[in-house]
Specification:
Blueprint: H1 2-38, E1 40-51, H2 55-58, E2 71-83, E3 86-101, H3 104-107, E4 115-130, E5 138-154, E6 159-164, E7 167-172, E8 177-194, E9 199-212, E10 216-218, E11 221-222, E12 224-230, E13 237-243, E14 246-247, E15 250-260, H4 264-285
Antiparallel strand pairs: 1-2, 1-15, 2-3, 3-4, 4-5, 5-8, 6-7, 8-9, 9-14, 9-15, 10-11, 12-13
């Protein structure tokens, strides 16, 4: 009896195991074909206004300096693909020049140049999820992005010093543009309005993180500051040097205008519909058949 059960079950187990082993490849191929047929490339333009935390920039001069505008416009382009309710894209743009000239009193100290400006070139990858089906004329969105902010600073700092053994060495810096990378990330809520079949307008309201761990002065130099650590007794103190961070984060609003191309499945459906219309037109143009009664 056991041999009979074993001989009957083993082939079934083997067939089931073979089907399970083949299932991932079959499902994977089907999913890949289906996804590729429904991908919709898009391109667009965006413009926005960004609130900027300028405290770190101002403190490079002194505690009373306030020479930067805290709301700055930016604009750029976006490219990506849409699949169902998901949009994945790459954004690149430019945040306008911000800053100005220092006053004569600060320049008279010999420690500063007159020009103090900065600019930002943001490049990031974004992911958006629509909360409603795409057929709705107005849709709600959740999304975010991660990338790199290329921050250019024209620093007014003319002279810095550093210690070498027991000596204090002064170094002169030039008033030239220096570029370095900063962490760029966003999180937002938004809405999308379908203006036409392929054209839509999107609005985002969110928070942008734009932060660098150091202020670069060129020639492999960065600004540092002295930090004092006091032990628990409050008597013994140690001093060390740390990099000066740069945080330009703040809230933002952005509007995108996008054109979405047809997916392969939509193109196939359009071709089928065109053929049906053509066949219907040909049938309509045929002369009516005459009937005779014998």
């Amino acid at each position: 009896m056991r041999n009979r059960l074993t001989s009957g079950l083993l082939p079934r187990f083997a067939a089931a195991a073979a089907m399970l082993a083949a299932l991932p490849s079959v499902v994977g191929a089907w999913d890949e074909d289906r996804v590729q047929s429904q991908l919709q490339p898009y391109f667009g333009f965006w413009a926005g206004a960004y609130m900027v935390n300028t405290d770190d920039l101002n403190s490079l001069v002194d505690d009373k300096y306030d020479g930067f505008t805290q709301v700055m416009p930016a604009a750029g382009m976006s490219f990506g693909v849409a699949y169902s309710r998901y949009h994945v894209g790459v954004n690149a743009g430019y945040q306008l020049l911000n800053g100005g000239k220092l006053d004569a009193a600060r320049m008279a100290t010999g420690m500063y140049y007159s020009d103090f400006y900065y600019q930002v070139i943001p490049v990031d990858v974004n992911l958006e999820v629509a909360l409603l089906p795409n057929e709705y004329p107005v849709n709600l969105l959740l999304g975010g992005s991660l990338g790199l902010g290329i921050v250019g600073i024209k620093s007014p700092i003319a002279r810095t010093w550093h210690a070498e053994d027991t000596l204090v060495v002064w170094r002169r810096h030039y008033n030239e543009w220096q570029y370095s990378g900063a962490l760029l990330g966003t999180a937002f809520i938004g809405a999308r309005i379908n203006l036409a079949r392929r054209l839509n307008l999107e609005g985002q309201l969110g928070w942008r993180v734009l932060r660098a761990d150091e202020v670069y002065l060129g020639d492999n130099y960065e600004l540092v500051r002295e930090k004092e650590y006091v032990d628990t007794s409050g008597v013994h103190a140690t001093r060390s040097m740390e990099s000066i961070p740069l945080d330009l984060s703040g809230a933002y609003f952005r509007a995108d205008i996008r054109w979405t191309f047809a997916s392969q499945s939509e193109k196939d459906e359009d071709r089928v519909s065109a053929r049906r219309r053509e066949m219907a037109e040909r049938i309509a143009m045929l002369p009516p058949r005459s009937s005779s009664i014998d």
